[in-house]
């Protein structure tokens, strides 16, 4: 029964994510100015958002979290990223795990400055009793940025030391600094 409920929730969220580009389809992107063609200038953006996910292992069922980060756009299609946050996994065979993800990554846009691929790697620092140390963390991501700079993404995050693998849905907002 739990497996069917997870599958239903995942199917619904994936359907919403796939429909989102059609809802927000417009010519300009969040990197362009309306009505004017401007030479690209490298810049820094700050981003913050919330996470909701589910585990692909028996150890945990659900994850909630928040994160923030910096993105340095060195070209119109590519950016280097640094992110940090706090995630809490619960409701499974193992006791709850809270951890701080610290990641660096590379983002590249694959379609008109809207759809992107992001590869991140770093570490997860355990913050709950019973879990010691730091684990290697990596997360491939696919996302969509709306014209108003909202970032909708889905990622598969693997935190190897704590046997925590999850699919995470994220909604974030970014602005130029």
Structural class: mainly beta
* Average pLDDT over all residues: 83
Helix content: 10-25%
**Largest sheet, strands/sense/barrel:** 8 strands, antiparallel, barrel
- Please count the beta strands (DSSP E, at least 2 residues each): 8
Number of helices: 1
| Arrangement of strands in the largest sheet | 1-2-3-4-5-6-7-8
Q: Roughly how many Å apart are the termini?
A: 47 Å
Structural features, described:
The protein has 177 residues and is mainly β. Helices cover 12% and strands 56% of the residues. It has 1 helix and 8 strands. The protein has an 8-stranded antiparallel barrel with strand order 1-2-3-4-5-6-7-8. Strand 6 (134-145) and strand 7 (150-159) form a beta hairpin. It is elongated. It starts with a helix and ends with a strand.
Features:
177 residues; mainly beta; eight-stranded antiparallel beta barrel; 12% helix
């Amino acid at each position: 029964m739990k497996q069917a409920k997870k599958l239903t929730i995942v199917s619904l969220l994936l359907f919403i994510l796939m429909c989102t580009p059609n809802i927000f389809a417009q010519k300009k992107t969040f990197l362009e100015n309306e009505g004017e063609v401007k030479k690209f200038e490298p810049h820094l953006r700050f981003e913050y958002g919330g996470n909701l996910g589910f585990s692909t292992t028996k150890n945990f069922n659900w994850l909630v979290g928040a994160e923030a980060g910096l993105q340095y756009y060195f070209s119109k299609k590519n950016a280097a990223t640094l992110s940090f946050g706090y995630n809490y996994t619960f409701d499974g065979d193992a006791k709850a795990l809270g951890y701080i993800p610290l990641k660096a990554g590379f983002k590249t846009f694959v379609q008109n400055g809207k759809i992107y691929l992001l590869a991140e790697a770093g570490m997860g620092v355990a913050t709950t009793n019973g879990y010691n140390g730091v684990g290697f963390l990596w997360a491939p991501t696919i996302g969509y940025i709306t014209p108003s700079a909202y970032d909708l993404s889905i990622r598969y995050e693997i935190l190897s030391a704590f046997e925590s693998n999850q699919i995470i849905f994220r909604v974030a907002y970014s602005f130029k600094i």
